[in-house]
Amino acid sequence: MKVNWKIAENESPILYSNRAEWTGFVIRHWRVLAGEMVEQTFSAHDVKVALAGSVVTQTHTASGAWRTSREEAGSVCLTPAGQPIKAAWETEIECLSITFSPTFVAQTALEQNFSDPLELVETHGRRDPLIQHIALGLLTEASAKEPMGRMYAESLAQTLILHLLKNYSTNKFVQEKSIGGLSGYKLKRAKEFINEHLEEDLTLGQVAEAVGFSQFHFNRAFRRSTGLTPQQYLVQQRINRAKELLTKGDLPLVEVGICAGFKNQSHFTTLFRKFTALTPKAFRQIKHP
User: pTM for this structure?
Assistant: First the structure.
């Protein structure tokens, strides 16, 4: 992204910058000083949430004229891939950006039986509490010392994409497919796969592939069959494994957490207490007084 900064010599324009990437999408969070982004196009669909400050954006209309919009804190901007855009801001701003691979979005649209071809609608200055909520959830996950894991972030992204398809595209449902639950065999296989890989940072795609489903269909079918999302089931099974290890063995608590798939001791203790109202140490003491 090319920006002409309005700063003093030897002054850094970037006050803060953070980035996290998952399969098919990237989240960026930044706070910068005054500047001007020259006209350019991007290869990904971009969803921006303004967190602080004010930005003036300009985009081309179908007739070739420029359309000017002002983005204030709390507003949402959707720029489809290939859409020329330029922007300027006179004071410090803070923004959150989620960019989606067009292939990733198109695949979700295909799986959900939306009409073809996919066309997202350029949007500026709109208030959308759901987009803001999901974006902030992804930001929290990206910056957390104890993240929930890839499966959690992917579930949030899928919810956001479906919301964009339903509310920010010209595409319509050709006919909404009825998503049933998993068959007995596929549900058994999905649970086995998750339990066999509890120590790994599993993705929705890995589990879905194991049972021959797309990510989106698997997510919905699993929830319909179990009443839980795959992420919820994963955490539940990690807690169950930790209970088993704490009850039957004498492994150090750190090793129990690692064997159950938790990223570190703090993450293990936090989630274990959330589900059992006890710390791992207290749970072991009750089982082995």
Answer: 0.80
